[in-house]
Amino acid sequence: MASRIVSFELCGREVEVLVKPMTTLQFVLRNQLGYTGTKEGCRQGGCGSCTVLVDGEPMMSCLLPVEDVAGRRVTTIEGITPVEGLAPIQQAFVDTNAFQCGYCTPGMVMLTTALLDHNPAPSREEAVEALGGNVCRCTGYAPIIDAIEAASASATGDATRDAGVMPDRSGER
Amino acid sequence: MAKLRGTGIAAVNYPTGMNLGGDPSQALIHATTSGSFVVTLSSSDLGQGLRTVIGQIAAETLGVAADEIVIDTADTDTGPHCMGTFASRATHRVGNAVKAAALETRGALLEVAALELGAPVDRLELDGFGNVLVAGEPARCARVADVASKAQFQYGRTISGRGAYMKPKSPVDPETGAMDPDSTEAHACTVAEVEVDTETGQVAVLSIRSAYEVGRQVNPALVRGQIVGGAFMGMSHALYETTEPYYPNPDHKPKDFSEYVMPGPAELPEIDCVVLEVPSSTGPYGVKGVGEMTANSPIPAIVNAIYHACGVRFDDLPVTAEKILRGLESKRSAEGAGPGVTGSGSNRPDAASNAGSDASGTADAAGGR
Amino acid sequence: MPEPKMPEPLHVVGRSVPRSDAASHVSGRTRFAGDYTFPGMLHLKMVRSPVHHAMIRGVDLSGAERVPGFVRALTWRDVPHNVYTILGLIGVEPEEEFVLSQDRVRYKGEPIVAIVAETEAAALEAVSEVRLDLEELPAVFDVEEALQAGAPIVTHWGSNAFMFEGHPSRRVRFGDVEAGFAQADHIVEATYNSSPIEQAPTETTGCVAVPEAGGRFTVYTNTQALYFSLDNTAIILQVPGKQLHFVGGTVGGGFGGKVDVIVEPIATLAAMKTGRPVRYVFSRSEEMQVSSTRSAWRIRVRDGVMRDGRIVARQVTSYADSGAYSRQTPYALTKHAANAAGPYAIPNVSIDAYCVFTNRTPSSAMRGFGVTMASYAVEVQMDRIAERVGVDPWTIRFINAYRNGDIRPHRKPAEDATLIETMQAAAALVGHELTDDQRTLTSGPRASEPAGSPGGEAAPAGSPAAGAAGSAGTPAVVAGSTAEGVR
Questions:
Q1: Does B302 share its domain with B248?
Q2: Which of these, B10, B6, B7, B47, lies nearest to B212 by C-alpha position?
């Protein structure tokens, strides 16, 4: 089968890649373009560690033939990280310790970025539903939900939404 | 058909470390020109936060802030030996090695500070905020960063340290099992609340509330992360996970996350904890360790809660909806046998055996009392 | 050098400082083993046994060799020290696992031939073109059937039970368990089973081995134990350790699943044979079906209990399903045996823990290693006992809880016991009302002879007198921190 050139926008720049048919976006990102922030936990659509945004929608890049993103806008974890500091959702992950091993984290960050883009103040139930396709083996999901609530609270200025964040009481001894 | 609620408890100990072949770890530390410290190891961070807690132990001993420590791990060309990250050993073993290395480093630092401050080493102390003080003379002090810099450019001295910790090998007496199998023990008591749906067999875990005693907590937020994540994993082991759903029959092995069933965020129960700290005499600053144990007590607590809810004992893990339904069915068909019925929801041929010992109730005949 | 004065209070230890790797993790900048790529990197995929137990009569590589991109195949003949045991490093014998199968496969998924190819797709295609001529053998899957005479023998050395210094089980003998049963008012007996489970880290096991100048090899790996992997690789490849340089330290979830030294030796061998970097990373289905699991356990607990709830005898017979090879499981059995009586003061204990070989994916370490299922069996058993003697589940545990100075069944005195204080804190957390005796009890040493001493009459552990023992050895709770609920 003949290879072909596919072009798309990746994190704000135009890229062209030469691929065989059915090559996945995940493969192209990791192996042809060096964007290893997109992980590969299963390559079966079962874990979400490869989640990226395509035209702002979260998608599992392991199931996505790169031809399908031709002419579209792809955003990876590299694309949402500011030059200095962190995006609010990333900072919220840090503040709530919403990761342990960190392997599912880029996918979780992309998923929650999309959630908050579409719904700046999701209910807890909406947050839980949004996370349904992504696997975290370490945290038990609780601090990830807290991170969503914390990022939402800081974006919407709603201090009462901070309730889920566990205060650091270590200085109180 | 009903939704039945029940509560169960479990209380457990958990041993830290291994010792059957001797259990060593080592660490090296050196100061940089700007007064930060590089801790070199060959230890792995599995996500529990080894780099952070080991850095905290080094910072505490060296009297500097945590962000003055750089953890360089893991590389066998630079890092000294570490047995590995398992057996809940890393904070205890590697922490002890790093504390020892930091003490030696601190001694070297104070020797240079003595030259700089013109005071004997035994009168020097670290204030914990990056300063060396002459005891009783607050005006005579030097910044650790300045001492480190002058050590290299003015005095030609090294500020470095080596540390090792080893739990010696303890052979097991093959006849009696006499052994020294651990360095310290942490403890937990978990209370779980469940709701059993008698129509679907589904068990909803409503809450997992635990008290832990883990020695000194180096980083309470990370300890809490282990407890919360472990409670969820314990729930998963109790109710969902198996690589061989009809064990010992080896068929139907799952091959991916869609076939290997685990709970998701929708199944997250309320998780609450309280942490006691009783320092261990063997761990750095009293550490015991909390890595593995957090998935343990939730399992029997949940299984006991299921019995409390529906009066059927399930002794085969995981307690799936299929087993619950079969167990409830055999309870109904054996109505009158009382609350001691054991679930025959097991897939195992001898699953009824526990029913014999339990349902017989009065068959406590040993000794003829 | 005398230990210098430590500042009090502590300044850094005990504080929830942010994780030093936080920014790296949330920005995707953390490099995991599978993220390393090198020019000219080859890909390794494994030909695995499709059956549980068989003699290998022939392997035909000709079809694989014709696949475009095929570079070479490795068989057992290429492995310098093909038969090994991971725990050989700490003296465990015999050597029994095959890096690549020679004449027999003992579990479904056992590696037979490693295929190295230019691309992963070519490697997978070549794997599918390898023809195996296998003569299937009867297999055994049940731990107790495996120990019966006439069962198919899994190991090459003739026994389905791992031998612990001459015994087929790891034994603990403490007091006189038969005398305890004779003395007991009740006998409570049950069998607990668990099926194997997978560590299921989100990052699969894997490594990249890279030839360097001067005959060295750098291996980027997600092992939980860097030197353990290096030392075992050196043995298997029969090279001096100085030729190997292992780089790791960042693991995308371990839970015990990455201590088996399965990928590094063969990837390094492939790099040696080809002179090129070689990547060997498990697929998710390999992680699920071939990587080792937590053992399945069968645990029989038989307890002699007095009318007042004191346990006077506990006999535990445990079987861990090791699968086809031992890996870390014999060690798990020892850890299990040390803890199988639970955190309770029981004067008469007998434990037999068997490490049994079956035709199953080998089991190995997982979080809680030998203790998790001991705790499970013991804690459900405690509820059974409570019901039998007619006390509540809290009371049965307070009556029997171990205390400092008690001699454990493995004969080490308890010195860090805080079970009682932990239960008191849990009761407070959930609002469970304790009796006055339970509230004032401590883990401090007993006033009388330790209840755990062999053959001794158990002290009335639940009595206030026991709790009133001197303060020496009483755990000093230096701090209690309450976490907020997370919901």
A1: yes
A2: B10
- pLDDT tens sequence across B191-232: 999 999 999 999 999 999 999 999 999 999 999 999 999 999
Domain definitions of chain C by residue range: 170-195+293-467
So what's the pLDDT on residue B344? 44
Task: Count structural domains, chain A.
Answer: 2
Closest by CA to B269, choosing from B307, B230, B231, is B231
- Give chain C's residues under pLDDT 70: 1-8, 448-475, 478-487
pLDDT at C349: 98
CB contact under 8 A, B228 and A139: yes
B277 and B210 inside one domain:
yes
**For position A60, which CATH number holds?**
3.10.20.30
DSSP conformational letter for C453? S
Domain of A136, CATH number, reads 1.10.150.120
CATH fold for domain C170-195+293-467: Aldehyde Oxidoreductase; domain 4 (3.30.365)
Q: Chain C contacts of B84, Cβ < 8 Å?
A: 223-228, 259
Q: Is B91 on the interface with C (CB under 8 A)?
A: no
Q: What is the pTM of this model?
A: 0.93
Find where tokens 């699968």 sit: C323
What gap in Å lies between CA B10 and CA B189, rounded to an integer? 6
Asked if A69 and A13 sit in the same domain, the reply is yes
- Report, as an integer, the average pLDDT of A151-157: 88
Task: Give yes or no: residues B154 and B260 share one domain.
Answer: no
Domain that holds residue B299: 3-13+184-359
Residues B285 and B320 in one domain: yes
Residue reference for tokens 């797709």: C121
A52 and A29 co-located in one domain: yes
Q: Which residues of C touch A136 (CB under 8 A)?
A: 202
- Residue-level pLDDT at B216: 96
- Give B 94-113 residues with CB within 8 A of chain C: 103-104, 106-107, 110
Domain span holding position A11: 4-78
Please check whether residue B29 lies inside any domain of the structure: yes
Question: Does B137 share its domain with B282?
Answer: no
Are A104 and C202 within 8 A, CB to CB?
yes
Determine whether the interchain pair A167/C203 forms a contact, defined as Cβ–Cβ distance below 8 Å.
no
Residue C274: count other Cβ atoms within 10 Å of its Cβ. Answer: 17
Please tell me the distance in Å from B274's CA to the nearest CA on chain C: 5
Q: Residue A169 above 60 pLDDT?
A: no
Residue-level pLDDT at B19: 76
Q: Is residue B25 predicted with pLDDT exceeding 60?
A: yes
Q: A31 and A8: one domain?
A: yes
B367 located within any domain:
no
Chain A (79-138) residues lying within 8 Å, Cβ to Cβ, of chain C: 81, 86, 90-91, 93-95, 97, 99-106, 109, 135-138
Task: State which residue of chain A sits closest to B49, comparing Cα positions.
Answer: A100
CA distance A133 to chain B (A): 8
Tell me the chain B residues in contact with residue A146 when contact means C-beta distances shorter than 8 Å.
none
Residue B202, pLDDT score: 97
| Cβ contacts of C307 within 8 Å, gap of 6 or more | C185, C186, C389
Contact A173 C31 (CB under 8 A): no
- Which 8-state DSSP code applies to residue B325? H
Cα C447 to chain centroid, rounded: 38
Query: Is B349 part of the contact surface with chain A (CB cutoff 8 Å)?
Result: no
Nearest CA in chain A to C204: A41
List all residues 6 or more positions away from C466 whose beta carbon is below 8 Å from its beta carbon. Answer: C403, C441, C446, C447, C448, C459, C460
Going by pLDDT thresholds of 50, 70 and 90, the confidence category of residue B338 is: low
Which of A42, A97, A131 lies closest to B225 in CB terms?
Answer: A97
Residues of A in contact with B221 (CB under 8 A): 97, 166, 168, 170
Is C26 in contact with A105 (Cβ distance < 8 A)?
yes
Q: Same domain, yes or no, for B149 and B203?
A: no
Nearest residue, CB atoms, A101 vs list C28, C29, C251: C251
| Cα distance between residue B235 and residue B253, in whole Å | 21
H/E run at residue A11? none
Structure tokens at C431: 């609002």
pLDDT in tens, A63-115: 999 999 999 999 999 999 999 999 999 999 999 999 999 999 999 999 999 99
